[in-house]
């Protein structure tokens, strides 16, 4: 099921590549309507969510909680470090337990790429699965809040020049955004250390030196350097990375008047972006966090539409 009378209905939200552009635009419009006070949530307040985070998170975890609060839903807490995961319980068995308890939606972050596949393919697991990030795989709710932020700014994606900069190979944010931005008509560029680039991304855009295109960009999307996925020391000092690949104050001055800066956060201040630019006039980093609550309301509503 896709979009019915403007209501997006989805069994699960696990990967941007599994959403049509119609579904994506429906979720963005719904998120904007929630934000602008033009929509009231459908009746999901009797339904129960479990937020299961097996990797650290501030924004995604708390933003889903806030979305659930705004939808009036009930939530059960889950803390992996005090759960039976410590006794060897598998992810499948944790979610099977949530299913048996009567939970209707599980929001899950887990380090294993594609962890969700066995859950959504299982005939016995009943809750809707919402992927809050799977290793270096996908991060669909981050992508949708990024798209909502761009759409809110420009009203369209067609022809926008978007550069995704930094730790591309390890980034589920980049992986989630590149295909959908390409499908929506944006012109994509990539930059950063060449060894963190995957030639498979060539189908979506062109690898460039940031300084070659910075004056043309509409959106500069910076990525966090993911030290935890680098298997040891990164090859750059913070200062060397910042000067070569990051948004310095000098580069900021080259951005055109209507351009915006984005970053999924957490930010490594002074690495991807100069400390004092995090809240600069062109920065939409806090707007991204704010929009995350509304687009996650839309996601939860979509996966619960047939359960309400
Ligand atoms: N952007 C993002 O996913 O942040 P968290 O890791 O804090 O959830």
TrEMBL record:
Described purpose of this protein according to its UniProt entry: Catalyzes the condensation of carbamoyl phosphate and aspartate to form carbamoyl aspartate and inorganic phosphate, the committed step in the de novo pyrimidine nucleotide biosynthesis pathway.
Catalytic activity: carbamoyl phosphate + L-aspartate = N-carbamoyl-L-aspartate + phosphate + H(+)
PANTHER family according to UniProt: ASPARTATE CARBAMOYLTRANSFERASE (PTHR45753:SF6), ORNITHINE CARBAMOYLTRANSFERASE, MITOCHONDRIAL (PTHR45753)
Family, per entry: Belongs to the aspartate/ornithine carbamoyltransferase superfamily. ATCase family.
Name of the molecule in the record: Aspartate carbamoyltransferase
Enzyme class, first EC level, given as a word: transferase
Record flagged with keyword Transferase: yes
Subunit and partners: Heterododecamer (2C3:3R2) of six catalytic PyrB chains organized as two trimers (C3), and six regulatory PyrI chains organized as three dimers (R2).
Gene: pyrB
Keywords: Pyrimidine biosynthesis, Transferase
The organism of origin for this protein: Streptococcus suivaginalis
Residue ranges of every copy of the Aspartate/ornithine carbamoyltransferase carbamoyl-P binding domain listed in the record: 12-152
GO MF entry, a single one: amino acid binding
CC terms in the record's Gene Ontology section: cytosol
Residue ranges constituting the Aspartate/ornithine carbamoyltransferase Asp/Orn-binding domain according to the UniProt record: 159-302
Biochemical pathway: Pyrimidine metabolism; UMP biosynthesis via de novo pathway; (S)-dihydroorotate from bicarbonate: step 2/3
Biological process annotations from GO: 'de novo' pyrimidine nucleobase biosynthetic process; 'de novo' UMP biosynthetic process; amino acid metabolic process
């Amino acid at each position: 099921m896709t979009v019915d009378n403007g209501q997006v209905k989805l069994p699960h939200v696990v990967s941007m590549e599994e959403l049509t552009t119609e579904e994506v635009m429906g979720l963005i419009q719904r998120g904007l309507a929630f934000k602008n006070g033009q929509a009231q949530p459908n009746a999901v307040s009797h339904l129960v969510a479990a937020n299961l985070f097996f990797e650290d998170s501030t924004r995604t975890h708390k933003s889903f909680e806030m979305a659930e609060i705004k939808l009036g839903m009930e939530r059960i807490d889950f803390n992996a470090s005090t759960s039976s995961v410590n006794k060897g319980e598998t992810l499948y068995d944790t979610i099977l337990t949530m299913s048996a308890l009567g939970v209707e939606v599980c929001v899950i972050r887990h380090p294993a790429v594609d962890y969700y596949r066995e859950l959504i393919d299982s005939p016995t697991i009943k809750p809707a699965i919402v992927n809050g990030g799977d290793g270096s795989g996908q991060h669909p709710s981050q992508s949708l809040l990024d798209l909502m932020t761009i759409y809110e700014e420009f009203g369209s994606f067609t022809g926008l020049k978007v550069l995704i900069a930094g730790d591309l190979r390890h980034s589920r944010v980049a992986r989630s955004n590149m295909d959908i931005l390409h499908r929506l008509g944006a012109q994509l560029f990539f930059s950063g250390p060449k060894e963190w680039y995957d030639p498979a991304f060539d189908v979506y855009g062109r690898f460039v030196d940031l300084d070659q295109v910075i004056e043309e960009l509409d959106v500069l999307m910076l990525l966090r350097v993911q030290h935890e996925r680098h298997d040891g020391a990164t090859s750059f000092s913070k200062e060397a990375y910042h000067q070569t690949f990051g948004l310095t104050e000098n580069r900021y001055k080259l951005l055109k008047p209507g351009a915006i800066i984005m970053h999924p956060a957490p930010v490594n201040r002074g690495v991807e972006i100069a400390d004092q630019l995090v809240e600069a006039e062109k920065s939409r980093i806090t707007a991204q966090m704010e929009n995350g609550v509304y687009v996650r309301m839309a996601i939860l509503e979509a996966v619960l539409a047939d359960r309400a």
